[in-house]
Amino acid sequence: MNRDQIEGGIRNIKGRGRTALGAVTGRARPQVEGAYEQVAGVAQSAYGRIHAQAEDLHRDGRHFADEAVSRGRSLRDEAYERGRSLRDEATHRGRRYGSEARRQGRALVARAEDNRGTTLALVAAAAFGLGWLVSRGR
């Protein structure tokens, strides 16, 4: 409860008392003034309630925004780390595949050097076949 809620409640009770006193004594002025105090007290109390709710909403909204910023930063950091991990894995695999390709290429060159005649015949056959396919397309 805030100050306006308390003061509005007290003002409402005073107004009720004044209205009742005016009714008992049969005087209209205290009744009207009491009714005015009652309405003013209810209005002040309602203002206090709304003010407290607005403060709560403001605090909750600020908390919500802070939480959203925190989660956003956390997601950004997680995405950065995942990207770094994927980059490192791709680099590692690329190096491994490159090494394997060089090894197999060297083995193929060594085999071709050991079998020069067969390699020459295969290259000539492939060139003839490719030339034949190209010439048929025309």
UniProtKB/TrEMBL annotation:
Origin superkingdom: Bacteria
Q: Where is the composition biased (Basic and acidic residues)?
A: 82-103
Stretch list, region Disordered: 82-105
Quote the SUPFAM superfamilies the UniProt record gives: Hypothetical protein YjbJ
Gene3D superfamilies attached to this UniProt entry: YjbJ (1.10.1470.10)
InterPro entries in the record, alphabetically?
A: YjbJ_sf (IPR036629)
Q: What's the protein name? A: Uncharacterized protein YjbJ (UPF0337 family)
Organism, scientific name:
Methylorubrum rhodinum
Source taxonomy: Bacteria, Pseudomonadati, Pseudomonadota, Alphaproteobacteria, Hyphomicrobiales
